[in-house]
Amino acid sequence: MKQMVHDAARRARSAATVLAQASRAEKDAALIAMAEALVAATEEILAANALDVAGAREEGTPENVVDRLSLDAGRVAAFADGVRQVAALPDPVGEVVRGSSLPNGLELRQIRVPMGVIGMIYEGRPNVTADAAAICLKAGSASLLRGSRNAARSNAAIVAVMRDALAATGLPADLIQAIAADDRSSATHLMQARGLVDLVIPRGGAGLIRAVVEESTVPVIETGTGNVHVYVDADADLEMALDIVVNSKTQRTSVCNAAESLLVHANIAEEFVPKIVAALHERDVLIHGDASFQAADPSIVPVTEEDDATEFLASEISARVVDSLDAAIDHIRCYSSGHTEAIVTRSLASAQRFTRGVDSAAVMVNASTRFTDGGEFGFGAEIGISTQKLHARGPMGLREMTTTTYLVTGDGQLR
Amino acid sequence: MKQMVHDAARRARSAATVLAQASRAEKDAALIAMAEALVAATEEILAANALDVAGAREEGTPENVVDRLSLDAGRVAAFADGVRQVAALPDPVGEVVRGSSLPNGLELRQIRVPMGVIGMIYEGRPNVTADAAAICLKAGSASLLRGSRNAARSNAAIVAVMRDALAATGLPADLIQAIAADDRSSATHLMQARGLVDLVIPRGGAGLIRAVVEESTVPVIETGTGNVHVYVDADADLEMALDIVVNSKTQRTSVCNAAESLLVHANIAEEFVPKIVAALHERDVLIHGDASFQAADPSIVPVTEEDDATEFLASEISARVVDSLDAAIDHIRCYSSGHTEAIVTRSLASAQRFTRGVDSAAVMVNASTRFTDGGEFGFGAEIGISTQKLHARGPMGLREMTTTTYLVTGDGQLR
């Protein structure tokens, strides 16, 4: 298995060297061909997917996991359209990040160049296969796609279609390769192929991400887990606060930018707590509340420290009243996973203190936490949301899939 | 030991929270006070250093290592001056990296914020202690400094002086802490203090760097190793090529941006090889050459594949004639450590093909490889040269010691 993964990585490196010389037009033509081929191959992809779905059901896979695994013609059309949208985005490769003329006449430019070979280790959804391959290709890199075992036939079908389209447009098919998911060791070999793979991105549950971080010797970008807070300040517009809490918690509960914890300033608790409890109960949200919340509705279950630390990814929220803005910041620094925090306030000073005090990838002032998203931020495509501080933090688009090099041009300068 | 390292990291985190709120003026005042205190404490620092040097000699440490360990009043003044220079640099924290107004009226800004807690694991030179502490402080982060055992007393003296100066200016002394180097495990605990330490930077030999990369669960930036190439193209100005090869190889041999390999295009080999052999021999450089080089001077030792892969860090160079620019690029992609490569050419097309074809942190066109340096690039301070692609590549200054956050300001936007 190690040999197989390393061979794939070597082929990917050599293909990436070809891609590094390709023009934007060549890359975009390949992406458009890939999108068209995916739509044209809908039937084959759905047939492969049907086998995966049947296999998953047979193994007693929970229905929500089966749902994420399941494709239909609309879902295929949607990810094909995503590939087409990547073609329309500007090419990040070649962008000049900074530059200057040095005192000795050297011209210094820092420019974006391809990363090389990017490994993706992910769970569930087959659409990630097409998304990730397209983003990596546009950013000038080869992708090694290691999805989950239960999606293996779907992923193989999608990869086969994209490889054929690549080859037909004259780029190496080995720019996109599926890594066998038969046993766990293929993921381990991928994340330890130091020197062959430049970057590994895990996408999935907390367990997967922790395993990759611990075992990988290839540099990793951690994605995803979001224990997201909304803090309603003493100076908040309470109507706006109601809307933002409800939207952040309930607009979609299974995503990393959904709110999981509510903190309310004591000065407004008497007025705000009963209102937000009613609004959340109306939407069937289970509240884990402190004494102030329980006073508003005795049916509220008591909040535990474990709840404070939990990313529910469900219609549940932990809720506390805090004595001050600083207490809110301290609570968030203690329990947050560093994804997104929001403050609702009319006070500029409170907004500034909050944004400087918390330490997360995104901070919202008077806006829903659901906006932490590459599409919403205008990046056009997103390969995940980084919750680490190195390299990329927050939604990652094409730029974050590149590295840079310094080009120094002279006419014989010596030291 | 684990407890001790983790306690230090916790104190550093809490100190970093205070520093994150400090103004540029407060940070600069602290840095200037540190620089003055280091000069004032020269005698104590030299006394501690004398004990380290005596201990190292007693253990039979090689004289070049003892030399790097040894301080005198001039060296103390030099690193104190370095700290003062860091104070004079612009503050990277708060810099707006990009920003836009989104269609829904949200204002999006990506701004630089402090990394938090940075661990340095390094060998030999005590000046790294002062340099690293100053750069981390200016970038808003606390530093945990784990130097080598043989420099422990020097490092402890330098750290004590800087901590006192910090405390006197009102910032927490725990922003700068030395980690005991009594046994190897303190380094291991530092690089596995995930959640407490945000970044670890190893500086030292290849063995140290490999160990950190393999054992660390905290994100790492690899620094340093440089198997640096100079390629002399068919279209080169041969006088310029002579100067650049000689300067790249001999101006200082023990540094990572010194040339280690020479590649010469076959078309000019007959004229150029005897000249460069003479010039290098005049400067006592040992040449490991292929048949063409041996033909120019039979005393030249035959080059092996191991030589091609070796960073000599000494007055030695491997040298080969190549048939084409592409052969040079292939050789470099195979053997380079991704630090710096240079081409000497008058051809714009060759320069473009070379810069796109190699995959290194810096590429020089008609300039000495010795220019890959934070000081030469105008960064004002350098904490090392990254040879990895993630986060920072090439010389790292203050900006590279920060991360970013997205600030999103709205007036009640919902999804």
From TrEMBL, chains A, B:
Its EC number is 1.2.1.41. GO terms for molecular function: glutamate-5-semialdehyde dehydrogenase activity; NADP binding. Residues 3-283 form the Aldehyde dehydrogenase domain. One of its GO terms (biological process) is L-proline biosynthetic process. It comes from Aeromicrobium piscarium. Pathway: Amino-acid biosynthesis; L-proline biosynthesis; L-glutamate 5-semialdehyde from L-glutamate: step 2/2. It catalyses: L-glutamate 5-semialdehyde + phosphate + NADP(+) = L-glutamyl 5-phosphate + NADPH + H(+). This is Gamma-glutamyl phosphate reductase. NCBIfam families: PRK00197.1, proA. The gene is proA.
